[in-house]
Amino acid sequence: MAKTGESPHAKRDVIAQALLDGCDEQQIRARLLNSGASDKSADYELKRLAKDPFFAAARQLSNKLAKRDWTLDLYARLHAQNDGAHSIPTVHAIEPERFFRAFYFANRPVKLTGLVDHWPALERWTLDYLDQTLGNAVVELQGQRGASPTYESDKTAHERRVPMRAVIELLRRDEASNDFYITAYNDKTNKATLAPLWDDLAPVSILRESGGRDGLFWMGPRGTLTPFHHDLTNNLLVQISGRKRVRMVPSWETARMRNSLHCFSDWTLDEFLNDDIATPPMLECTIDAGEAIFLPIGWWHHVEALDRSISMSFTNFAADNDFTGGYPADSRF
Question: Quick check: 237 and 293 in contact, CB under 8 A?
Fold first, then answer.
């Protein structure tokens, strides 16, 4: 740890971080000493803390958070002992009643097959078809993502508008890239532009009737990534062409997901895969064309395109999916 010496502001920073980390008074003292404070100064700061109402409030909040994390850890420990806890089940042609009872309301992921077999898009949405149907249209995408490590949290800065034909030409090269990606974030601009495609979709048994028109369009080359994050709604991700690898971490493991901004995790995939101590358990599966995966609200997920890929995502389930009430207004934690 860098030495902060006797700077009052620096000592406040050390104490504040220690409180956030749930340290007791002896641990706070040790951190002060390690940061460069003298014994006398550290003791003085601890005496001041004992009389400080802000410290008392912070300690109370820290205890509440510790209790909440303890409760969530109970879920994790009990879930780990349940059959099938370490894999994502696959269910074919699921009945809506079973889907909502066993997965939606239980906050559990599931891979679904036989759900969209009736969609014409599965056969029609080739690059040639998209070129013929939308080649002259201008679409919005996320561009130059490789130029910034925060491309996901800074999505607005990466908005670009280009002819669909130019996107298709890049996809025809079949080169791995994470530099351009048409995503759900671009839906406000693309919904009307992509309207000629919606007749190639059809109703889905677990969604409210819309014929697919409430879906969000995703298209990009192999290698496109969506880093670890959680959504504020339940989501259904449907694969139209290509494959995607989906890695998931349960919602009750939030305390270990390094969440410092909104719904994003500070974990990179490489760090996550190579840290066997600090990381929570992770579930993984691959969805192919015609398959779907249910992403429960609060579950952290990382999505990687293994091939040139087209997907649709949906939130219009035939059940309550409005959970934004009470979400912290300040997205920086």
Answer: yes
C-alpha dihedral over 142, 147, 150, 155, to 10 degrees? -20
pLDDT value for 65: 85
Q: At what angle do helices 164-172 and 127-134 cross, to 10 degrees?
A: 160
- List, as one string, the DSSP characters of 180-231: EEB-GGGHHHHHHHTGGGGGG----TTB-SSTTTT-EEEEE-TT-EEEEE--
Cα gap 31→46, rounded to integer Å? 12
d(CA 109, CA 100): 11
Position 139 pLDDT exceeds 80: yes
What b/e sequence results for 99-114 when a residue is b if at least 16 CB atoms lie within 10 Å of its CB, and e otherwise?
bbeebbeeebbbbbbe
- Give the per-residue pLDDT at 316: 96
pLDDT at 52: 85
Domain boundaries, the chain: 8-77, 89-314
Nearest CA-CA partner of 35 in 17, 58, 62, 54? 17
The fold for domain 89-314 equals: Jelly Rolls (2.60.120)
Q: How distant, in Å, are the alpha carbons of 81, 138, 161 from that of 179?
A: 41, 18, 14
Strands (E), the chain: 90-92, 110-113, 138-143, 159-163, 180-181, 216-220, 225-229, 235-241, 244-249, 283-287, 292-295, 300-305, 309-314
234 neighbors 332 (Cβ within 8 angstroms) = no
The percent of residues in the chain predicted with pLDDT above 70, rounded, is: 96
Please tell me the total number of residues recorded for the chain in this structure.
Answer: 333
Q: What are phi and psi of 170, to 5 degrees?
A: -65, -40
